[in-house]
Design a protein that fits this description.
Structural class: mainly alpha
Radius of gyration: 36 Å
Strand content: under 5%
Distance between the termini: 75 Å
Order of helices and strands: HHH
Mean pLDDT: 85
Number of helices: 3
Shape: flat
Low-confidence stretches: none
């Protein structure tokens, strides 16, 4: 009995490098699993809130369009009554004014869209490409 070695017992309760590595990986996996579960739960409620928001915006836009139409129809009827003319002529003039305003807005949008976006970023990327070309030529 005296030549038997005592069983190796780690008094601190550590299980070695492999055990600690597995425990760390398990803890990290549990951490990310719990965070993903929380994100999934919150994303469902966020999706409902976004759908309600989109519905309210679409409905408000539809009501604004209808209100605009009623406003224009009322203005046409009122102008026709004040001018003592038939309403189709006033409606034609109002329609032409709307088309002219739309044309002006499209021309403004066209002039704004021809200006390049992210000009500084594009310039920096061109400099980077030129530097890479020079780098490749100098190493050859």
């Amino acid at each position: 009995m005296s030549n038997e070695s005592p069983p190796s017992v780690n008094p601190a309760g550590h299980s070695g490098l492999l055990g600690n590595a597995l425990a760390l990986i398990s803890a990290v996996a549990d951490f990310f699993e719990s965070r993903l579960a929380l994100a999934a739960k919150e994303s469902k409620s966020a999706a409902v809130q976004i759908l309600i928001l989109i519905g309210c915006i679409v409905f408000a836009a539809a009501l604004c369009v209808m209100g605009y139409v009623f406003l224009i129809v009322s203005a046409i009827a009122g102008l026709a009554h004040l001018a003592g003319t038939s309403w189709p002529w006033i409606a034609l003039i109002v329609g032409l004014v709307h088309f002219i305003i739309a044309l002006v807005l499209l021309l403004i949008a066209r002039s704004r869209i021809t200006k390049p976006l992210f000009r500084d970023t594009v310039d920096e990327l061109k400099k980077d490409r030129e530097w890479l070309r020079n780098l490749n030529q100098s190493t050859s």
